[in-house]
Design goal:
The chain has 11 helices and 12 strands. By secondary structure, it is an alpha+beta fold. The protein has 2 domains: 3-199, Ribosomal Protein S5, domain 2, CATH 3.30.230; 206-378, Alpha-Beta Plaits (2-Layer Sandwich), CATH 3.30.70. Strands 1, 2, 3, 4, 5, 6, 7 and 12 form an 8-stranded mixed beta sheet that branches. The longest helix is centred in the last third of the chain and has 25 residues, at 265-289. The two termini are 13 Å apart.
C-alpha cells in the first residue's frame, strides 16, 4: 500500500489531533547465511527484503494509545502507563513492548493514534514481528524527538520482544530491519554489533525465497531449547579450557573435536553447527566479494545440511524445497532460512532460469505435499525510514 492510500485510511479512522504526525516503514528480512549464530555472539549475513510494514502515527494530547491494524481490521486502545499483555491481539504486544522499553529508559511519552499494514507474510520466518517493533520504535522516537542511534534502536526492539513478548530472539532481525541497505547484504558481528556492507548486485544471479506455507509450530519452545544446549556447551568449555570462553564464538572445530567424547551427542551436534556455520558465513562473505556464485551456493547447501542434521531445526517440507531446488537448472544453492520448523527457504538462482524455477518448484512441491508454495523474488532493500 502506498503512503497516500495509507494516509487516507488513517483519516477515515482517526480525527486530526493537529499535533505532529508521520509515516514510517520497516522491512522484513531474509537471512542469506548464519543461522542460529546471533545469540552465540557469532556472524550472520541477512538482507532486508522488498516487503515491509508501514505505519501512520499522530500524537495525542492525552496518555491514550489507539492502535489500528488494517490487516486484522481491529482497533485496540490502552493507556500508555498501563501496559498489559494482550492474549487476544498478539500484534499489539509488539507495540506495547516498544513503549515499555522506551519508558524503562525514562523517556516521557505522550499518547498517539496509529494505523499500520504490511505485506510480509506472518509466521513464515521473514521477520514481520521485528519489522513491527522497529517501525514502532522509529515512529514513536522520531515523533517525540528522542534521538536513538540505529544499533541502539535495534537493541531496544529486541528487548521489547525478549521482555514483553517473551521470545528469546537474538539481534539479527531487528538489526537488519533497522540498518539494511539497498543492494547490500550486511555481515553483522553479533558480538560487537558492528557490520560490514556486502554488495549484492549480481547481474546474473538473484535471491528467490520459497515459502513452504508450513506454520512454524514448535519454534518458540525449540528455539529456547537450542539456546540452552548452546549454553551447556559454553559452560563445559569455560570450565575445561584455560582461557576465557563466554560464547560458542570462542571455540574452533579442533577443540570441539578433542572433547567430543565428554559431551552429550546433542550438545556436540549443536556446537558443531554453530562453529561451522560461523566459518561458512565468513567464507560466504568472501565468495560474494569475489562474485564466486559456485562457492556461495555450496555454502548455502552446507548450511542447510548442518541445520537439518546437527541443529535439527528443519522439517520435511523445507528439506523437500531444498531438494527440489537442487534439481532445477540455474540453481547454485538453497537452504532453510530463519529459525526453522517451517517458513521459508532462500535460493540462489540464475535470472535466466527464474521463471522456470518458480513454475517447477510450485508444481512439484504441490504434487508432493498438497501445499501451495509462495515464491518471492527480491533485491536487498533499505532499512527502516521515514517516508
Ligand atoms: C529468529 C531469531 C533470530 C535468529 C534466527 C535464527 O529469526 O529472531 O534472532 O536467532 O531465528 O538464526
Amino acid at each position: 500500500m502506498n503512503k497516500e492510500l495509507l494516509l487516507k485510511k488513517y483519516h477515515n479512522i482517526f480525527a486530526d489531533t493537529s499535533l505532529d504526525s508521520g509515516v514510517y516503514a520497516a522491512p522484513g528480512r531474509v537471512n542469506l547465511i548464519g543461522e542460529h549464530t546471533d545469540y552465540n555472539d557469532g556472524f550472520v549475513m541477512p538482507m532486508a527484503i522488498e516487503k515491509d510494514i508501514k505505519m501512520v502515527i499522530q500524537l495525542r494530547k492525552d496518555k491514550k494509545v489507539k492502535a489500528y491494524s488494517l490487516d486484522y481490521d481491529k482497533l485496540v486502545e490502552f493507556e500508555i502507563d498501563n501496559l498489559l499483555y494482550d492474549k487476544e491481539n498478539i500484534w499489539v504486544n509488539y507495540i506495547k513492548g516498544v513503549i515499555d522499553e522506551l519508558q524503562k529508559m525514562d523517556k516521557k511519552l505522550q499518547g498517539f493514534n496509529l494505523i499500520f499494514t504490511g505485506n510480509i507474510p506472518q509466521g513464515s520466518g521473514l521477520s514481520s514481528s521485528a519489522a513491527l517493533e522497529v517501525v514502532t520504535a522509529l515512529a514513536i522516537s522520531d515523533l517525540h524527538k528522542i534521538e536513538i542511534e540505529a544499533v541502539e534502536l535495534a537493541l531496544l526492539a529486541q528487548r521489547a520482544e525478549n521482555n514483553f513478548v517473551n521470545v528469546q530472539c537474538g539481534i539479527m532481525d531487528q538489526y537488519i530491519s533497522r540498518l539494511g541497505k539497498k543492494d547490500n547484504a550486511l555481515l553483522i558481528d553479533c558480538r560487537t554489533n558492528e557490520y560490514q556492507l556486502v554488495p549484492f548486485e549480481n547481474e546474473e544471479y538473484q535471491i528467490v525465497i520459497c515459502n513452504s506455507k508450513v506454520e512454524r509450530g514448535l519454534v518458540d519452545s525449540e528455539y529456547n531449547n537450542r539456546r540452552k544446549e548452546c549454553n551447556q556447551a559454553v559452560d563445559f568449555f569455560a570450565e575445561k579450557l584455560d582461557r576465557n570462553i563466554t560464547a560458542l564464538r570462542d571455540l574452533d572445530l579442533d577443540t570441539l573435536q578433542k572433547y567430543r567424547e565428554e559431551l552429550s551427542e546433542t550438545v556436540y551436534k549443536r556446537a558443531h553447527h554453530v562453529i561451522s556455520e560461523n566459518q561458512r558465513v565468513l567464507a560466504a562473505e568472501e565468495a560474494l566479494e569475489e562474485n564466486d556464485m559456485d562457492n556461495l551456493g555450496k555454502l548455502l547447501y552446507a548450511s542447510h545440511e548442518s541445520l537439518r542434521d546437527d541443529y535439527e531445526v528443519s522439517c520435511e517440507e523445507l528439506d523437500l524445497l531444498v531438494d527440489l531446488a537442487s534439481q532445477q537448472k540455474g540453481v547454485k544453492g538453497a537452504r532453510m532460512t530463519g529459525a526453522g520448523f517451517g517458513g521459508c527457504t532462500v535460493n540462489l538462482v540464475n535470472k535466466a532460469f527464474t521463471a522456470d524455477f518458480v513454475e517447477k518448484i510450485k508444481s512439484k512441491y504441490y504434487q508432493k505435499t498438497n501445499l501451495k508454495a509462495d515464491i518471492y523474488i527480491t533485491n536487498p532493500a533499505s532499512g527502516a525510514r521515514k517516508l
